[in-house]
Every structure is written in C-alpha cells, then in structure tokens.
C-alpha cells in the first residue's frame, strides 16, 4: 500500500503560518478566516467569492456567504491573498503571492497565473512617473488558453 502523503491542507496551513509571521500578530485569524484561506490556497483556478463559499461550506458548517465575503476582504486587506479584477467580471481571488500577472482566456474564462521569466520590476517595463514607488502590480493579459487556441485552429 502506498504511504499516505502529507495532506495538502498541512502545506497550506504552514504557508499561512509563514505569512502571518511576516505580517505580525495583528493579522491573527479567526477559524473562519483560516478555513477560507486554506480553501483558496488549495485552489489554483482563481475562484469567485461564491466558488470559495461552495468549497468551504462542507468543511466549515454554518458559514454564510456574507462571512466568506468578509473573510476574503480581511485577508486581501492584510495582503494574505490577492483580488483579481478583470474588466466587468466578478472579482476573483488568488492565494499565490509570488510576483505574477494573470492570463485570462476570453473563450473559456479561465485565469492562469503567469510568472515572470526573469525577476520583474515594474519600473523596468513601464514608464512610471519619476520617483513613484510600486507596491504591487496588477496586470492581466487576455487571449486564448492553449486548449481553446487548439480548438480554434481546428475549426
Ligand atoms: Zn480557454
Ligand atoms: Zn493568480
């Protein structure tokens, strides 16, 4: 029989502990916020608040959609997760805090993380106002994901 591997929730939990340690004690989390973070850390598909609610309600009995919204607001305002806002679409959420931009497939609507090929400094790419200080970069690239591009080529 195969050795049981470490449950992925343990990995997500330790990622959370690392981030909390960096941010200091004021970002200490309630059990609900912790659950919401863990669900998001295990999701790479950039879920909406409703998607997160759908995934968290089985593990956190009695949690409401409003609570999930509040948790997501709290986590993003403390820099523990990122909000992903694409055009007029519903806000999505991302727990990947490595420097990255988002690739959005206009056909199937999936959002994929795109990491820079070399360390990225916004000022090297964009002509920012002299003396500006960058806190974060929100860039979205729109196009067709490999699967949709392939389908388009075949028709
Ligand atoms: Zn696609
Ligand atoms: Zn992302």
CATH superfamily of the largest domain: Winged helix-like DNA-binding domain superfamily/Winged helix DNA-binding domain
Rg, rounded, reads 18 Å
Count the beta strands. Answer: 5
Low-confidence stretches: 1-6
CATH topology of the largest domain: Arc Repressor Mutant, subunit A
Bound molecules: zinc ion
Number of helical segments with 4 or more residues:
6
Q: What shape does the CA trace take?
A: globular
Number of domains: 2
Query: Mean pLDDT, rounded to whole units?
Result: 85
N-end to C-end Cα span: 46 Å
Any overview of this molecule?
With 155 residues, this protein is an alpha+beta fold. The protein has 2 domains: 8-97, Winged helix-like DNA-binding domain superfamily/Winged helix DNA-binding domain (Arc Repressor Mutant, subunit A, Orthogonal Bundle), CATH 1.10.10; 98-155, Ferric-uptake regulator, C-terminal dimerisarion domain (Dna Ligase, domain 1, 2-Layer Sandwich), CATH 3.30.1490. It has 6 helices and 5 strands; from the N terminus they run ααααββββαβα. It has helices at residues 8-23, 31-41, 49-56, 65-77, 122-125, 146-154; strands at residues 82-84, 92-94, 101-105, 111-114, 140-143. The strands form 2 sheets. It has a 3-stranded mixed beta sheet, with no helix packed on it. A two-stranded antiparallel sheet has the order 1-2. A hairpin with a 5-residue loop joins strand 3 and strand 4 (111-114). Helix 2 (31-41) crosses helix 4 and helix 3 packs across helix 4. The chain is globular. It starts with 7 loop residues before the first helix and ends with a helix. The site of one zinc ion has 8 residues, from helix 6. Residues 46, 94, 96, 100, 102, 113 line the site of one zinc ion.
């Amino acid at each position: 029989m195969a050795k049981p591997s470490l449950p992925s929730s343990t990995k997500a939990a330790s990622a959370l502990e690392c981030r909390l340690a960096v941010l200091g004690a004021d970002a200490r989390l309630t059990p609900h916020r912790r659950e919401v973070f863990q669900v998001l850390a295990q999701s790479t598909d950039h879920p909406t608040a409703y998607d997160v609610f759908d995934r968290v309600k089985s593990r956190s009995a009695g949690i409401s959609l409003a609570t999930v919204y509040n948790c997501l607001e709290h986590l993003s305002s403390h820099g523990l997760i990122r909000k992903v806002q694409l055009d007029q679409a519903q806000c999505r959420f991302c727990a990947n805090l490595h420097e990255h931009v988002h690739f959005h497939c206009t056909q199937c609507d999936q959002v994929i993380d795109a990491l820079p090929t070399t360390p990225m400094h916004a000022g090297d790419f964009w002509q920012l106002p002299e003396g500006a200080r960058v806190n974060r970069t929100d860039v979205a690239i729109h196009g067709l994901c490999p699967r949709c591009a392939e389908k388009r080529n075949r028709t």
